[in-house]
Every structure is written in C-alpha cells, then in structure tokens.
Amino acid sequence: MNKVIEDILSRRTIRNYKPEQIKPEELNEILETGLYAPTAGGRQSPLMLVCQNREINNILGKINRKVFGHANSDGIKFVSETQKSIADDDNIKSAFYDAPTVITLFAPKNWVYGVHDCTSMAITMALAAWSLGIGSCYVSRAEETFDTEFGKKVMKECGISPDYVASVHLCLGYPKDITNHAKPRKEGRIHFLK
To answer: I need a surface site. Which of 67, 124, 147, 189 has the fewest CB within 10 A?
Structure first.
C-alpha cells in the first residue's frame, strides 16, 4: 500500500502523551509540511504559533477547557472510551491533554477562507506527525481561547497582529499508547452521480 494512504488510514487522534518534548528536527519537518498545505488562492495567509512551554500550554489548555464547559457524555456514549476527551470527562482540566507541543493557527480577520486554510494546515501537519511516530489532537475553540486577556498577551508577546484571529490548535507529542483503534466505517456514505 502507498505509504501516504497507509498513514491516512492508520492515523488516530491521540490524547495521552509521553512527557518528553518532540525532537526539533521532527518539529521542523512537521512545520514545513504546514507551510506547503493548500490555502485558498495560494495566499499562504495562516500564521503558526508554536508553543513548547508547558506552563503556557497548561494555562491556555485550561482556558480552552473552561470555554468548552462541562462534559456532555451520558456515561454510555463517548467521544473515545480508550482516550477520553474533555467532552467525556470533567476531571480532564486541560483541553490540550498535557501535549508537550501545541501549534495554534491564526488567519487574517474577516478572510472568508481563514478557518478552511487553518484546518488544511492542521490536518496536513497531523498526517506528517503521524508518519514520524508523533500523535496529534485537533482542538477547536482557539478564537475564544485567544480572545482572553492572557491570549491577547501571548499574541502581543509573539508579535501576532490583532488583525489575526486564532482558528485551531494542534496538540503534538509522542503517544503513551495507541489503544483507540479505527471504528468500522459506516455504510452508505459515498454517493455517485452518473
């Protein structure tokens, strides 16, 4: 099987990370793939904020968790039974799941394709990470997380203009374990027009 297709089919969302930081050369490869991700009109408008500071990631992850609110699992259906999410368990205090690296993607305000461009970058980097043995978790609510006093302070310190809005977070780290296997694919999701 083609290696790219194999990685796409085997990739899983990871919410349990080893504490060690990912290697700089691996991070650089992942970031470069993000720079080559498709963007509307080839504008390359998204910015990446890479944070490997555990304290800052912990604060931002807790802000993101608070924005989400209480878990909505009914105790029977879960986002993941093997790697619980904040939607499953109120005891998880950070929406970044203690990932050692968190990349936040920013798009120009009022750019109609900003969310799409950032999502394209995040998915591209998640696949690149997986190919290197690094797990990832796509986390939303970035705009609300950075629309706080602390988030605005971080943006200012990093030189990100207020003309940009946070769109998505991508958590990265070495998986502690990979116990969440692919669910069977649902039937009837492909339609052909003749």
So the answer is: 189
